[in-house]
Amino acid sequence: MFTRNFRNICRRYSQSVTFRTAETSPVQQNDNQIGLFYTIEKDVCKKLYGHGGLPKSYMKQTKTFTETTLMIRQPALDIIDCIKASDLNKPAIRYVLYGETGTGKSLTLAHLIHFAHDAGFLIVHVPWVSEWLRRVPRHKEMSNSQTREGFVDLPLDAAAWLLHFKTQNQTLLKSGDLKISKDYVWSKREQTLAGAPLSELVEQGISRVKYACDVIDALVYEIKLLSNNKQCKTFVAIDGYNCFFYPMTRLNTPTKKKVKPEEVTLTTSFMELTKNDWTNGVIVLSVDQIAVAEDHQESYLPKYLLYKKGFEHLDPFVPVEVERYSEKEFLSCASYYRDRLWLRGPEELETELKLASACNPYKFMELCAPL
């Protein structure tokens, strides 16, 4: 009886502010829906974010809420509008998401990936660069590159990424319309012939892990070629991109020598993909202070986080700041939390939480957890 009454009270609070929209396709969303939550279908969520793309704390929350929702926010809509208005026959435009820690850069990127999926883009998504270069488990698989002297391969990470790429693009890859342009010889007995579907190249890297890094190199070359030939339009999304330019990784060679980011084959592949020397593509990157968490970063601005090398590599680019919640967004989020029974208590509590969290989305989520 008490639970039923409590649910009714929470519903009454949540009804005071509209916080949901029925428009589930980012292609159709507009400025009228800013601050509203939309629900992502389970099969789409598994396809796009099953191997990464949503922060772990947010994934935990979605399990508690028994649904995956994203708030429609201005930065994502701005980039979507720019993509719709831009001429894809011109060199790929690079957008850089930046902002304070916890403002929602990764979730904005997740929203844009959903847009790319619905708009028919081939998606090339790196969920978190730090997983490769900074977070080193006790026994990280690492080997010297067989094809490039002085470089280091991360074969298991590369194979896992190829599986992620295959899952996100299963519809486009199954069609068989995307073909590779030249022969690739992996060993005396193994080769991928010109004219074979792109999916065959991807499968080679998944099934033969030792060649995974070389397969990604070949895949980047083929994707750029296919895009230039207008056989597909490509959406590149990389979270924590500034990690590629931090002076050192946490990887060590067997001789205990520190490995630089540019000595990792995966770095060179995705640096190649983020050049603007190709067409029919869109590149969205995020720079984040916590990408290099153990080193205190004084500023969240791209010029600081990318260092000189990264800034020059991306110049020119379009910077897009992801800010803290506006008044409308905060009330919408509070109403959603009440609806999910994540936030309980009197209405005055919201004013206190607003001041305590300073409208930072992550801090607000954390403060609500024990309530």
- Assembly type of the chains comes to single chain
Q: In angstroms, what separates the terminal alpha carbons?
A: 21 Å
Largest sheet: 5 strands, parallel
SSE string, helix = H, strand = E?
HEHHEHEHEHEEHHEEHHEHEHHEHHH
> What overall form do the CA principal axes indicate?
globular
Give the low-confidence spans.
9-15
Give the helix tally.
Answer: 16
- Class derived from helix and strand content: alpha/beta
Strand content range = 5-15%
**Strand sequence of the main sheet, in spatial order?**
4-9-10-3-11
Q: How many DSSP-defined strands?
A: 11
Write down the overall mean pLDDT.
Answer: 92
User: Helical percent range?
Assistant: 40-55%
Brief account:
By secondary structure, the chain is an alpha/beta fold. 43% of the residues lie in helices and 11% in strands. The chain has helices at residues 2-15, 42-49, 56-65, 74-85, 105-118, 130-133, 155-168, 170-175, 198-207, 212-228, 265-273, 302-305, 307-314, 327-339, 348-357, 361-368, and strands at 37-40, 68-71, 93-98, 122-126, 143-144, 152-153, 184-185, 191-192, 234-238, 281-286, 318-321.
List the helices and strands and how they pair.
Layout: H1 2-15, E1 37-40, H2 42-49, H3 56-65, E2 68-71, H4 74-85, E3 93-98, H5 105-118, E4 122-126, H6 130-133, E5 143-144, E6 152-153, H7 155-168, H8 170-175, E7 184-185, E8 191-192, H9 198-207, H10 212-228, E9 234-238, H11 265-273, E10 281-286, H12 302-305, H13 307-314, E11 318-321, H14 327-339, H15 348-357, H16 361-368
Protein name: Small ribosomal subunit protein mS29
Family: Belongs to the mitochondrion-specific ribosomal protein mS29 family.
Keywords: Mitochondrion, Ribonucleoprotein, Ribosomal protein, Transit peptide
